[in-house]
Structures are given as C-alpha cells and as structure tokens.
C-alpha cells in the first residue's frame, strides 16, 4: 500500500540526495565533503562488493568489518546510499528508530560528527511503502547495486550525468545495466524499481515487485492504444489514461483498481471442526442449534468482536475480559475464540456431540453476534445441519478419539471425512480433506526377496521384524557394535516408507525435549533486538509430514536412543507412545492439541555394550518391541561369510571374526561383522589396518582391566597362528 502524500515527500528528498551528489560530487549529510566521486565509489566497491562477506552475521556487523576503516568520503557515501535504501519503507517493514540506528551507526565510523539533516530525516519518517522480504533479506544486494550504479554515474561526463537525471528512460537503462550480482543473479530488482519511482515519480509507478507490474499491465491492457511490450512504458501510458479519466492522481493499490489486477488469495483448504454445545453455561444448546441453523460459543465475559478479528484483537479482548486469569488460560481462550471468529470458513464441515449422538453440518456464513437468546449463545455461525445423528460408538477409533477433546473447539479435519460420509454429506468433501483422512487403512508394503538378498538376511526374519514394527509402531534394535543396527533401521524404514519419508536423528547426553519435539530458539531481528521463535524438532516435523499422508508410513530412526535422558527428551510423549489416538497439549503449544498418528513408526538403536549410560527404563521399555542383532544369531550369524562370498573375497576375515567372538564368549561384547565388510580386507595391508585401528581399540575398551596383554590374545598374528593361516 502506498501513502501518496508521504511518497511525494520521500521522492523530493531522494532526488535532492542523488541529484546533488551526482552533479556536484558533494554530500548533503556532510556539506563540503566530496563523497560522490569515483574514488569514493571505487573504494566502496572494493571494500563491499568485491569483499563479499558470506557469514551469517547481521548486515551492519558485516558492513562495519568491511568499510569502517575506510575514508570519510566512502563512509558518508555509504550512509547516503543506505538512506535511499531505508527511507521509503513504512514502519510495517522497518521501524523509524531502526532506520536512524542504521544510518547513525554508519556515520559514527566517520572521523568527525555527521548527522542526517533535519529535512532529510523528516522525509524518512515514516516512509511510504511496505517492502517485501527483499528489503529484509537482500539489503546487501540492494546496497551493492546502489554502489555499482553510483560508480557508473559519477564517472560519466557532466553532460551525460545531467541527461541521465533528466531522462527517466536513459536512467533506467543505466540502472538496469548494473543489476547483476556477483553470482549472475539480480536480487536487487525491488530496489531498482523503488529507485526509479523515487527519482521519477511522474513516470514510474510506486510498485516494487516486478510481478505486480506485469499483473497491472495485463489487467489494464484495454487502456493501451499501442502496447509496447515495455512494462514501465505501458504502465506509464495506462496511468496517464486513468488520471485523465479521474482528473488527478490515483494509486493502483487503492480500490477499485487493486481488485482488478491483484489475484485473489488461493482458497483455504476445507477443514473440519468440533464445537461442543451440550453444556453451555449449564444448558444443552444443541437442540437450539439444530432448530435455528447455527452453532455458537459463549465466552460471555469477553466483549463483542467482529468476524475475521485478528489474533491480536482477540488476545486484547481476552486480556480485558479475563484480567485475573492465568496466562495459560488466556492463551487457550484466545486461541479458541480466534478459531471460531476467523479460523472457521464457509464450506468447512462441523460436528457436535450429544452423548452418543454426533451431528454433522456445513458452515454457511461468517461469524455474527445475536444475543436474543442470551450472551451465552450470542457468538454464532450459520450452519446447515444434517438433523439425523450418527452413532459415536460406530465411528472409527481415530474419530472417537478426536471427539474426546475437552476443548470447546477442536479440529477434526483428519477424521471429518468419516463423519461426513456416515452423515450422508460425502458429496461436500473436497479432495484435500479426503487426502488427510486418517481413518483410511495404512498401506505398509511387504518386503521383497530382492530386499532380503541385498541385505544378505533371511526374508522371514526381516518380514517378522516389519510386522512387529507395524503392530507396535515402536521398535528398538539392540546388539554389540558392528552388527549393522543403524544401517538395518534406515534400510527397513526406506523399504516400508520410502527414502523421503524416513529420517534419522542422533541422541546424545545433552539432547533434550526442545531439540527433539519443539523449543524456543533465539534470533536476531532486523531492529537488532533478540527475539525467540518456537521451532519444531525432528519428531514434530515427522508428525506434521505424516499427517498429510495418513495412509503412508513415516519412519523416524533414533540412533543411540539410550544415550539421552529419555524422560527428559520425550516428556509428555510417553503417554502418546502407548495411546496413539489420544490428544494432549505440548508444553510450549498449550492451545494446539497434539497427537501421534498411527502412521509414524519409531525405530531406535542401542549398543548393549554401552555401560556408561543407563539402559532404557521400564516405562519406556514397555512401549517398544525389542529385536536383537547378535553375531551368533540370525540374521547376523554368518553375515560376513555371505558378504565375502558375494563379493568374491577370501573367507579368512570371517574365520578371524568367529575366533575373536569364540574367545570373548560374551554375546553383549561380541564384535560385529560390519568392521570387516570392506573391500580392503582382501589385502594384507587392509586387514592389518582394520585390526590395528578399529578392532583392537574396541577390545581394549571392552576388556579394560581384565586382560594384561590384548595383543597376545587378540592380535592378528596370534589369531592367524591359531587358525593355521598366513596373510598373503
């Protein structure tokens, strides 16, 4: 949106800065200082453009490293170019104070005191336009573009400089010639379009997004006598035509013009909702809902709010209406009320429960207020109800679980297809809702003989493992090092779910709930302040992905699961691992019910030899099925021999491994075959390296304090002698 009057002020100031600098070479920030010269521009180019800083630091931090040791002329020029960058932006994009913090920081690097002149400061406050993400994410590219353009302009002969500042089309061509960044991309196009308007507002439209210019030109093409194919020239002709019709200035961002070119937002996918009405302030409101064709929520202590109210409006109203309530209760109330006023949309499906009877209907209108039946029924939505109820007990287990939520409002999108179908409303279901129907049967593919042959493991054992995982949803593969636990877990997940639906996370002693499920992460805001974002962890990401394809498995592999404090990591998810269809609230998202879908499988791995951490506690152990991988049992027993045979390698490594494990005589401390499943075991040097660098250090750790001379008992020469073999 453009504030035209403020835009005129900003354009006048921008023209003053650029024209004064390019034509005279002198700075407006520091009168008498020749900052707009080829020397200053070249210095800025060397320090900033050629010295590109790829670090993740904030723009100002990097800029200080790059130019703060430069000449006064270069620093003041940088400040004036940044003034052109930030001053058009409204507070919705960048705060007024932050604008002057940026400029003040840069000017503080000058050897004498420099301040933005009052008239220029006034023009930059508060700006005229809401910038897009480019003005936040690509300031470095915009600044580099302004440097390149200045470098080009100040080196032109005076007559050509004057011509460029008088001829908007000549200026545009010059500016476009330096748009390309260091890597061949043009990330400063938004700045390019803004600068054209700032310097030539009578010719160029105040539109910073090139795609919007295309939409405007196409929408008003009927006003073009002779289209040129040049966006800016065509829009200029369109503006002249409409201004002649209107008798003055207008904005493409105002109505009735905006709705003609701006595409309508894509329709929000259909959703399903539960609204409780059996006990509204002690009264069963459902009969009135069915008779009156509406549903309602109470919140009688909270003032009337309009349909489509913003989250902040609702939060403020809840805070005023419930001043003594705890913050958690306020957050939940605000979330519930916002959903009813603004989250519900016409076309969404809705259900309510009256004992065993479930009524299903379709929302047909926006929220409205009608207190004719009392304030408890005043906040309403029009609903076309199916008057014939369906039986709650006859619904699928997933749908029954969803209806158990204690919230006044709950989302039923993932099960609403089952309810609507039973209620005879299946024709109103969209493809998006049907795709999210978690009551559908889960498709778990059978493992193939080719998969088993590739792993060199029995198909019967692998399929039994997959069946156990499918039935329990949580499994732990355990055994000594080198038995292929992580490899098997990942391959099994990919066979059942596919590579794109299989992910892996590594546990360690410092891993916590905030890492695994969700937690707050600090971020540096554009205003320099530290903020915090609630960031989902790998578990919540897997759940959210799985909810989009409820009939396909999603597998999360947790490597070294017993190395973390599981009670700390899993928190309230202990409950969900056993009761999949029940909803809970996460500690950082109290107003968003959370459940663990049936299609999320968890495979953990753990080393039985790891005595440095506690084994899984009884509560967690009950929630998993365990599958052993031991060198003396299927499917690991004989695996190395089978691999050597397939690779056409000598059998000696298998004989050595069997001899080591015979001497250890402890399945939990046995050495797994994967240490020797490498092509270099066929060579003397390769086998010696594996033995010296991998197997002997492992045995020394396992047998610490139990054997004085590991080499004498388990060294490669001793084992070869016992086997009657020699290395080639």
Question: Which helices and strands appear, and what pairs or packs with what?
Answer:
Blueprint: H1 4-24, H2 38-49, H3 59-67, H4 72-86, H5 96-107, H6 118-123, H7 134-137, H8 139-154, H9 158-166, H10 168-176, H11 189-199, H12 210-219, H13 231-246, H14 258-261, E1 272-275, H15 286-292, E2 294-297, H16 311-321, H17 327-343, E3 349-354, E4 357-363, E5 368-369, E6 379-385, E7 390-391, H18 397-402, E8 409-411, H19 416-422, H20 431-435, H21 449-455, H22 459-472, E9 474-479, H23 485-497, E10 502-506, H24 513-516, E11 518-524, E12 530-536, H25 538-547, E13 554-559, H26 566-570, H27 573-578, E14 584-586, E15 589-594, E16 600-607, H28 618-622, E17 625-628, H29 639-646, H30 652-664, H31 684-702, H32 710-714, H33 716-723
Parallel strand pairs: 1-3, 9-16, 9-17, 10-13, 13-16
Antiparallel strand pairs: 1-8, 2-6, 3-4, 4-6, 4-7, 5-6, 11-12, 14-15
Q: How far do the termini sit from each other?
A: 80 Å
Strand percentage lies at: 5-15%
Q: How is the biggest beta sheet arranged? A: 8 strands, mixed
Poorly predicted regions: none
Oligomeric state of this protein: single chain
Strand tally: 17
Return the domain count: 5
Indicate the structural class.
alpha/beta
Q: Which descriptor suits the 3D outline?
A: flat
Radius of gyration: 35 Å
Number of helices: 33
How would you describe this structure to a colleague?
- By secondary structure, the chain is of the alpha/beta class.
- The strands form four sheets. Strands 1, 2, 3, 4, 5, 6, 7 and 8 form an eight-stranded mixed beta sheet that branches. Strands 10-13-16-9-17 form a five-stranded parallel beta sheet. It has a two-stranded antiparallel sheet with strand order 11-12.
- α12 packs across α13.
- The termini are far apart.
- The mean pLDDT is 89.
């Amino acid at each position: 949106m453009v504030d035209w009057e403020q835009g005129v002020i900003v354009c006048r100031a921008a023209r003053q800065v650029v024209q004064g600098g390019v034509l005279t070479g002198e700075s407006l920030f520091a009168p008498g200082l020749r900052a707009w010269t080829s020397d200053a521009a070249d210095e800025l180019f060397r320090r900033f453009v050629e010295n590109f800083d790829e670090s993740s630091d904030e723009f100002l931090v990097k800029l200080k490293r790059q130019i703060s040791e430069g000449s006064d002329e270069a620093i003041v020029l940088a400040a004036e170019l940044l003034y052109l960058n930030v001053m058009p932006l409204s507070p919705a994009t960048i705060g007024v104070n932050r604008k002057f913090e940026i400029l003040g920081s840069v000017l503080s690097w000058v050897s004498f005191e420099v301040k933005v002149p009052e008239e220029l400061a006034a023009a930059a406050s508060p700006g005229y336009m809401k910038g897009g993400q480019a003005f936040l994410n690509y300031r470095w590219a915009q600044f580099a573009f302004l440097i390149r353009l200045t470098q080009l302009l100040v080196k032109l002969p005076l007559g050509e400089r004057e011509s460029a500042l008088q001829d908007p089309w000549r200026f545009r061509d010059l500016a476009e010639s330096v748009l390309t960044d260091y890597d061949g991309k043009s990330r400063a196009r938004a700045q390019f379009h803004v600068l054209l308007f700032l310097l030539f507002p009578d010719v160029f439209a105040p539109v910073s997004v090139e795609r919007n210019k295309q939409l405007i030109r196409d929408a008003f093409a009927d006003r073009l006598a002779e289209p040129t194919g040049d966006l800016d020239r065509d829009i200029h002709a369109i503006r002249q035509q409409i201004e002649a019709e209107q008798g003055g200035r207008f904005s493409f961002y105002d109505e009735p013009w905006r709705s003609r070119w701006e595409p309508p937002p894509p329709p929000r996918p259909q959703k399903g909702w539960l609204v409780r009405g059996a006990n509204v302030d002690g009264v069963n409101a459902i009969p009135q809902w069915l008779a009156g064709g509406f549903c309602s929520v109470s919140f009688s202590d909270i003032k009337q709010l309009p349909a489509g109210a913003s989250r902040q409006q609702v939060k403020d109203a809840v805070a005023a209406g419930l001043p003594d309530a705890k913050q958690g209760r306020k957050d939940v109330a605000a979330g519930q009320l916002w959903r009813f006023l603004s989250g519900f949309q016409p076309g969404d499906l809705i259900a309510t429960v009256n004992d065993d009877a479930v009524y299903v209907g379709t929302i047909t209108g926006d929220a409205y207020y009608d207190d004719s039946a009392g304030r408890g029924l005043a906040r309403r939505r029009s609903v076309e109800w199916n008057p014939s109820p369906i039986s709650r007990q006859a619904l699928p287990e997933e749908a029954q679980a969803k209806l158990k939520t204690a919230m006044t409002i709950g989302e039923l999108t993932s099960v609403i297809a089952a309810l609507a179908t039973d209620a005879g409303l299946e024709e109103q279901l969209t493809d998006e809702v049907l795709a999210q129907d978690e009551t559908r049967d889960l498709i778990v593919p059978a493992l193939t003989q080719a998969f088993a042959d590739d792993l060199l493991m029995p198909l019967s054992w692998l399929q039994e493992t997959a069946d156990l995982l499918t039935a329990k949803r949580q499994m732990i593969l355990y055994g000594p090092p080198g038995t292929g636990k992580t490899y098997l877990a990942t391959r099994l997940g990919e066979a059942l779910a596919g590579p794109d639906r299989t992910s892996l996370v590594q546990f360690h002693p410092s891993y916590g709930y905030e890492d695994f499920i969700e937690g707050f992460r600090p971020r540096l805001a554009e205003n320099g302040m530290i903020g915090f974002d609630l960031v989902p962890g790998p578990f919540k990401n897997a759940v959210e992905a799985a909810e989009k394809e409820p009939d396909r498995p999603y597998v999360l592999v947790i490597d070294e699961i017993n190395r973390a404090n599981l009670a700390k990591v899993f928190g309230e998810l202990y409950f969900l691992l056993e009761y999949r269809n029940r909803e809970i609230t996460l500690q950082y998202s109290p107003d968003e019910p959370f459940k663990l879908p049936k299609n999320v499988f968890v495979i953990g791995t753990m080393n039985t030899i790891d005595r440095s951490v506690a084994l899984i506690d009884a509560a967690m152990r009950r929630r998993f099925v365990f599958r052993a991988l031991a060198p003396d049992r299927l499917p690991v027993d004989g695996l190395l021999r089978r691999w050597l045979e397939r690779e056409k390698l000598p059998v000696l490594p298998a004989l050595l491994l069997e001899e080591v494990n015979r001497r250890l005589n402890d399945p939990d401390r046995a050495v797994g075959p994967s240490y020797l499943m490498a092509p270099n075991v066929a060579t003397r040097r390769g086998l010696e390296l594996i033995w010296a660098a991998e197997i002997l250090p492992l045995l020394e750790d396992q047998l610490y304090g139990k054997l004085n001379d590991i080499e004498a008992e388990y060294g490669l020469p001793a084992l070869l002698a016992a086997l009657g073999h020699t290395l080639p």
